[in-house]
Structures are given as C-alpha cells and as structure tokens.
Amino acid sequence: MQNKNAIIINFLMHLHPKTVNVQAIKFTRTFGLGGINALLFVILAVTGLLLRFSYVPTPTDAYNSILALQNNSIFGSLLRNIHHWSAMLMVVTAFLHLLRVFYTGSIYYERKKNWYYGLALFAVVLAFNFTGYLLPWDQLSFWAVTIMTNIVEYIPFIGNGFANIIRGGETVNGNTLLNFYNFHTALLPLLFVVFIVIHFWLVRKAKGVTVADNTNESTVKVNPDLISKEIITALVLLVSIILFSIFFDASLLEKANPLISPNPSKAPWYFMGIQELLINLHPIFVSFIIPILIITFFVLIVKSQINKDKIGTWFYSKEGKKTIIISAIFASVLVKSLIFSFEYFINLSELNIPLYISTGIIPFLMYLIPVSAFIFYLKSVRKADKIELILAIVTIIFTSYLVMSFVGIWLRGDAMHLIF
Ligand code: HEM
Ligand code: HEM
Questions:
Q1: Which residues have C-beta atoms less than 6 Å from ligand 1?
Q2: Rg (Cα) of the chain, in Å, rounded?
Q3: pTM
Q4: Mean pLDDT estimate for the chain
Q5: Closest residue by Cα to residue 261 from 179, 143, 103, 144
Q6: What are 1-57's pLDDT values in tens digits?
Q7: Residue of 203, 227, 301 best suited for mutating to test ligand 2, as the one with most atoms within 8 Å of CB
Q8: What CA–CA distances, in Å, run from 345 to 353, 358, 374?
C-alpha cells in the first residue's frame, strides 16, 4: 500500500514544480477544474476501453450489444452509466474551466498558446461526445446525429461533400456508425493525448497558474500542500460519479428507425443552442457566418495588451464585474424577446424577398444592432476599456448561447413550437 501511494504521489509530483506560489493552491483560484477534466478523461478512457469488449459497431448489432451489456453482465449498466455521465459532466467542466481561465485573464501573453490548445481540446471533447452519442444506435442518437449532420450540409460549397464524408453516405447509416466508432475510439483519443501533453507543458512553461497579487511571492511545497488537495478532489469526484451512476441510468430508447422520426427531434443537449438558432435564423448564418465570426474573435482576443497587474484577478476589476453582470442581463433579455417575437408576432419568411435576406440578414441585424448599441453605451457612457469590452462581448455570446440552449432543451415541444 505504502508503495502504491508512493507511485501515485511520485507521478503527480512529476506534473508539478517542487514549490508553487501560496495563492496558486487556493481552491477558488482554479476550482481544480483542469485536474477534474484530466481525471474525467482517464475515467472515460478506462471505461471506454472496457466497453469496447462488448460493443459491436454495426447497425444490426450495436443496440443489441448494449442491451446485452446492460442485462447480462453484473456491472454492465454501471460501466455504461459511468462512461455516459462522465462524458456529460466533462462538457460542463471543460466549459467551466474555459470560463475560469477567461474571467481570470489567464489567456494573455505567455498563456496565449494555451488558450488555443484549450479551444482545440474543447472541440475534441465535443467531438468525443457527439461521436459517442451515435454509438447506442437508438432513436435518440440516430435522429440527433441526423439533425446535426444536416446542419453541416448548409456550409457553402463544401457542406454537402463534408457531411457525406462524415456520414460515409447521403444519410446516417452503417458507414456513419463505423466512422464515428473509429473517430471515437482511435483518432480522438490520440488527438486528445497530444493536445493535453502540450497543454500541461505550457502551464509549466508559464510557471504555473496565474495568481492575483504578483507581489506576494511566498511559496509552499507541492507535496503535501497541493497534492493532498488534488487527491481529495479526485476521490470526491470519483465517489460522486459512481454513486450517481448507481442511481441514474443513461437513457436508451427503442432501436433506431430511419423511417420514423420522433416528434420533436432534438440535437444533443450541448448543441441545442445551435438547433434553436436554426429555428430563428437562415442556415447559412448558423452553419457558416456566425461560427466564422466567433472563432475569429476568440482567436484575436488573446492578442490584446492587458495591464500585467490585472492578470489573475477574477473579472479584471470591480468595474469589470459590473460590466459582466449587465452584459449577461442585457443578452438574456434580448435573446428571449427575439425568440418570443419570432414565435408569435413576426413572420419574416412571408416577406417577398430572398430568404437569405428575410430570414438571414434581417434577424441577424435585429440582434447585432442592439448589441452594437449596448457596446457603444459601455464605451462612451461607462468608459469601458478594451479588456472590459472583450469581457462584455464574450459574456453576451455565452449568455445568448445558454439562453438558446435553455429554450431549445426545455421550452420546445411538438413540432418544435414553444411550450410553457
Ligand atoms: C478514450 C477512449 C474511449 C473509448 C475507447 C470509448 C469507447 C466507447 C464505446 C465503445 C462506446 C459505446 C458504448 C455505449 O454507448 O455505451 C462509447 C460511448 C460513448 N462515449 Fe466513449 N470512449 C472513450 C472516450 C470518451 C470520451 C473522452 C468521451 C467524452 C468526452 C466519450 C463519450 C461517450 C458518449 C457520450 C457515449 C455514449 C454513451 C451512451 O449513452 O451509451 N467517450 N464510448
Ligand atoms: C478538456 C480538457 C482540459 C484539461 C484536462 C485541462 C487541464 C488544465 C490544467 C490541469 C491546468 C492547470 C490548472 C488549472 O487551471 O486548473 C490548465 C490550465 C489552463 N487551461 Fe486547460 N484544460 C483543458 C481544457 C481547456 C480549455 C477548454 C481551455 C480554454 C479554451 C483551457 C485553457 C487553459 C489555460 C489558458 C490555462 C492556463 C491558466 C493559468 O495559467 O492560470 N484548457 N488546464
């Protein structure tokens, strides 16, 4: 036992320097989120490898292999549940970690590259979840993947070809299942490991996580001060996931039927914001223009010059915090009002003009003009500086997405009409 503990501690020590700034190990500095994501990946890789022993990636047998796993082996359901719930949790914790590094200003200068690797990791986490979603081959998974790959088709010029490559055909079929299985169990694990090694190395290179007050240079020993906290967090996480998985089963509807789509047919919950956007906006904006604008913005923000004393401070400053709160309220009211108006009062598709104008440019401007006016107000009246404006815009983007996801997941029913 002594020996085993020594191996674990030795391994953890290799990931850290010998000493770190005393503030860096406060729980509220990182909420342990980077480590939690790393542990979730380990749990997923281990349970995933075990699932592979019974899973058969063909349309005739995939569903039955999961039923057999659940019914015929003692810990089959538990294994599947742990994999399922850890995967769902990882979308949340990866997003929270993204918010933590962004709102503590930990993405500028020497951490710029790690923001990019982080974004790549986030994309890989979503890809893992999306490809995993299809594998049970039930009605839920089949139609969710059908909806999402149809959205890909709307990307101008390359959309159709690209969607056909992912699906291995014109529709979701056996080739899609095999493609997704190979992405899920071979390509994505490889990508994740490569990115995470670089990610960790870059954290070390930047001399650890950011701290709020650079003048306080007192340090503590990583072993035991930090390592003990890491081990406790890991144990709490592990026990919570196992307990949750004992009591809550991952859903499994009836076997996929390509001829009957459920009503309503919904995308996976983390992509519901995209599906909700598609209800209100022309597909070219959803599949192409908006993603390009957001990705470009996320690539560019880290090139800004920020006052080095502010790095590591939650929400940048008191004023920054206020800016974030009013931006979130503003975005939430704006998005809800637009969704409500488009559902009950305004029918833009009836206008006698090309659809990309009536259901594209016009609703897009109905969002963009108030947002621009709000940013102008922050700049001219509240004298917000560049970093505060970045905080405001990112908050508006995330709040808009979260509100759309909320509406899509909980307030859309029969034929995707609003229900209360
Ligand atoms: C690294 C190695 C991994 C392997 C070998 C693996 C393998 C598998 C296998 C064989 C299945 C089909 C069984 C089933 O659906 O219950 C599956 C499902 C799934 N995987 Fe993974 N997986 C891995 C990592 C991940 C990661 C990192 C995520 C998410 C971040 C993930 C998310 C999912 C999801 C959401 C499902 C569907 C679960 C369900 O509802 O049944 N997997 N995985
Ligand atoms: C999903 C897998 C990920 C894992 C396992 C991971 C792991 C970690 C760990 C262990 C740290 C140091 C401790 C901490 O901040 O908690 C860290 C820092 C960092 N991560 Fe991640 N991360 C992941 C995803 C992301 C994402 C999605 C982003 C942002 C887009 C990101 C950006 C960063 C940045 C900028 C730092 C440096 C923060 C600082 O110096 O204070 N990471 N990551």
A1: 41, 44-45, 48-49, 51-52, 55, 66, 80, 83-84, 87, 90, 125, 128-129, 132-133, 135-136, 184-185, 189, 250
A2: 23
A3: 0.96
A4: 95
A5: 143
A6: 557 778 888 888 888 888 999 999 999 999 999 999 999 999 999 999 999 999 999
A7: 203
A8: 19, 15, 24
